[in-house]
Design brief:
By secondary structure, the chain is an alpha/beta fold. Among the domains are: 98 residues, Nucleic acid-binding proteins (OB fold (Dihydrolipoamide Acetyltransferase, E2P)), CATH 2.40.50; 188 residues, P-loop containing nucleotide triphosphate hydrolases (Rossmann fold), CATH 3.40.50; 156 residues, P-loop containing nucleotide triphosphate hydrolases (Rossmann fold, 3-Layer(aba) Sandwich). The strands form 4 sheets. It has a 7-stranded parallel β-sheet with strand order 11-12-10-13-14-9-15, with helices on both faces. α6 crosses α21, α8 runs parallel beside α9 and α17 packs antiparallel against α19. The longest helix is centred in the N-terminal third of the chain and has 32 residues. The chain is globular. About 1% of the residues have low confidence. It binds adenosine-5'-diphosphate (ADP) and magnesium ion.
């Protein structure tokens, strides 16, 4: 009862509406209470009609002067007009194509309206399609009214009314937060907060309520993550006795490892000797040399008698990893095999046999690795490359192919450090914050579309001198209502403008085999200009390409642009990245400027978070986090720090002393929305 009660039994809900709420993951009274408004409308002040101004959002109360009148202005367009007055003036109210609205008003009676004032073509002030109620109804007039993120077929009114009922039904809600935490961080008590987050007395009360829930949300998230972390550490892991063997590997490399690479390898060695099971995330900028680090760890696993597996998100990337590892391991007596979905049945059978009998030491592959038929002999080490591409379950499945193998996750999208430490609380983190020596930063420019001709001439000239280039478009093919560049058309245009060069086309809708073919042709230098969508963003390495042109650059996230840019500048030549955009708004300008002034993935990710807002940054779940209900990871970063402090304090005291809080963490974990 109370909080646990199904909302289906609240007055006016019933089965049908309950199903609509279920689409938002709302089942119980408690779920509903934690469905927070996205904003509030201030209808607490009623404005005298005579003082209403064009553009203002107002609440007015007045009598109907002229009864509503329907007029057909043209076919299919009906306008309903009426006038409302108070002591100070008169205003016109209009509705469009609303046949029934006039039945709701009686001449001479008083009503309240809430909406935006505009000026009609005749120059009179009017309210278009306002919210309304009888002046004595008191449902919204004189209040601050919550506005919820809606789902189809659920009106604001329904959600608002149901929320009122839920608050009543809940009665006195027990306090989840430990008393001393609430006091030392000055957090509002739950019942006050719950009332005022939905139906605030005033905006100050709302802010106090919001702060509490932001804190609570971040605290529960971190406690849940920390809790898992502790559990992980308890899992017994395979012990690698020989870690010195890595030296044999690094001596065979054609380059010296950077200090950051060495540090990371040391951290991995320590984990693998510790007796615990490693779950480590490597965060490193594009080109920082994560593959060599993974290869060193894989080498160690094999020399200690185990098989290792590495999962990559695309076939191209998997085969590139297989190639580069085969080269690195060439003289080291290690057998590398590649397993992908597009292999022929016979080859696949043979490979599976090698994996099962242990003659394959290292298995590199795509999702094909986690299919049921893949059985390892003794898998002791797994690597997931470009982790945000994989779901939680996929990584778990890979790990389940062995008996608690060590796991290394490699992320190519740096996220702000403070956030990483807090949010990946369940993983240990190594940061590779150093690029191999001799890299020249990619020179980046943002230009308008009027420069396009000159840009492609520059690209053409560069190709004539023996280099290669990429062009990235936001769309695959032409679509209606969009004047964004598309890869299909642009590749045709470029091929006919520059008949002397070979232009290739690649996009996500192509078959894996065709993608592989075009990528191989580009890697070999036969294709000189590759027009594609973002499918090229992950990992592919073609050192001879030194120009990246990005069309409609405003359509991409900063971290994504940085990732794309990382495809060039891998050889010794000066590389260029040209962002083409005609978008003129301030945010876009700042975003482009960020790209032009910085080559630092960590800095860029911070700006990305700031300029795009966390909805986009984390909303895609690309970092494996649950969607935040109320906290804004950028704007609320001060509260994030405080809640991190509090979470650590609670963990030290032992979360079991706080059963209500602990059960909230359990609930979050049960939803299995947190990575790993
Ligand atoms: P990423 O971290 O983006 O996956 P890669 O592992 O693909 O980067 O490495 C990018 C390139 O840098 C590769 O060609 C690799 O051989 C080279 N590389 C890696 N480590 C070093 C190093 N310490 N010194 C010089 N080159 C290196
Ligand atoms: Mg890589």
């Amino acid at each position: 009862m109370g909080l646990e009660k199904s909302i289906q039994f609240l007055k006016g809900v019933g089965e049908k509406r309950a199903a609509l709420f279920a689409k938002k993951d709302i089942y119980t009274v408690e779920d509903l209470l934690y469905f927070f408004p996205r904003s509030h409308e201030d209808r607490s002040q009623t404005k005298p009609i005579g003082e209403c101004m064009d553009g203002e959002t107002v609440c007015i109360t007045g009598k109907i002067y002229r009864p509503p009148l329907d007029t057909y202005v043209r076919r299919g367009m009906m306008v309903t007009n009426m006038s409302v007055f108070d002591d100070t003036g008169m205003i016109n109210i209009v509705w469009y194509n609303n046949k029934y609205v006039k039945n709701n008003f009686k001449e001479g009676e008083s009503y309240s309206f809430f909406g935006k004032v505009s000026r009609s073509r005749q120059g009179r002030l009017q309210l278009s399609s306002p919210t309304y109620e009888r002046a004595d109804a008191g449902r919204f007039t004189g209040k601050i009214v919550p506005i919820y993120p809606l789902t189809k077929n659920l009106s604001q009114k329904t959600v608002q009314t149901t929320m009122e009922l839920a608050l009543k039904e809940a009665g006195t809600i027990p306090e989840y937060l430990p008393e001393h935490i609430r006091r030392s961080y000055k957090l509002a008590e739950i019942n006050f907060a719950m009332r005022n987050i939905h139906f605030p007395k005033d905006f100050e009360s709302y802010n106090i309520a919001r702060e509490r829930f932001v804190f609570e949300e971040l605290l529960v998230l971190q406690l849940a993550l920390f809790g898992r972390h502790e559990k992980k550490a308890e899992t017994a892991g395979i012990i690698f006795n020989d870690v010195k063997c890595i030296r044999d590997f690094s001596e065979k490399l054609p380059f010296d490892l950077t200090n950051a690479q060495k540090r990371t390898i040391n951290e991995i060695c320590r984990d693998c000797m510790s007796g615990g099971c490693m779950n480590r995330l490597i965060q490193g900028d594009v080109g920082s040399g994560k593959t060599a680090v993974a290869a060193a760890a894989i080498y160690m696993a094999v020399k200690n008698g185990y098989q290792a597996a590495m999962m990559a998100p695309t076939e191209i990337l998997a085969s590139q990893h297989a190639d580069s590892l085969s080269v690195m391991f060439a003289e080291l007596d290690i057998n590398v095999v590649l397993l992908t979905g597009s292999m022929r049945a016979k080859a696949k059978r043979e490979t599976l046999a090698k994996i099962a009998d242990g003659s394959a030491d290292v298995v590199i592959g795509t999702h094909a690795l986690i299919e049921e038929g893949v059985i390892f002999n003794n898998l002791g080490f797994v690597v997931a490359d470009e982790q945000h591409r994989f779901g939680v379950e996929q990584r778990a499945k890979l790990q389940a192919k062995g008996n608690d193998p060590h796991m290394l996750i490699m992320s190519a999208t740096p996220i702000p450090r403070t956030l990483a430490l807090i949010l990946y609380g369940d993983l240990d983190i190594s940061i590779i914050d150093e690029l191999p020596p001799g890299r020249k930063p990619v020179k980046t420019y943002a230009v308008g579309e009027n420069m396009r001709g000159r840009i492609y001439d520059f690209v053409h000239k560069n190709i004539s001198e023996g280099m290669q280039a990429y062009v990235v478009c936001p769309l695959v093919a032409e679509t209606e209502n969009s004047d964004l560049e598309n890869a299909v058309e642009l590749s045709e245009k470029l091929a006919s403008s520059y008949p002397d060069i070979k232009v290739g086309l690649m996009h996500g809708k192509m078959k894996a085999k065709d993608k592989d073919e075009i990528m191989t042709s580009f890697a070999s230098g036969e294709t000189q200009l590759l027009v594609s969508t973002t499918v090229i963003e992950v990992g592919v390495n073609v050192p001879n390409s030194n120009i990246m042109v990005i069309e409609n650059a405003e359509r991409f996230g900063l971290s994504q642009l940085h990732q794309l840019r990382g495809r060039v500048g891998r050889g010794g030549d000066q590389a260029h990245c040209i962002l083409i955009t005609d978008a003129k708004n301030d945010i876009t300008k700042k975003r482009m400027e960020t790209m032009c002034i910085s080559n630092d993935g960590f800095y860029i990710s911070e700006q990305d978070l700031k300029l795009r807002g966390p909805g986009d940054f984390f909303g895609t779940r690309q970092h494996g986090l649950p969607e935040m209900k109320i906290a804004n990871l950028f704007e609320d970063r001060d509260i994030l720090k405080l809640s991190n402090e509090a979470a650590r304090q609670i963990m030290n005291e032992g979360i079991d002393s706080y059963p209500l809080l602990s059960s909230r963490c359990q609930k979050l974990l049960a939803k299995e929305i947190i990575m790993n």
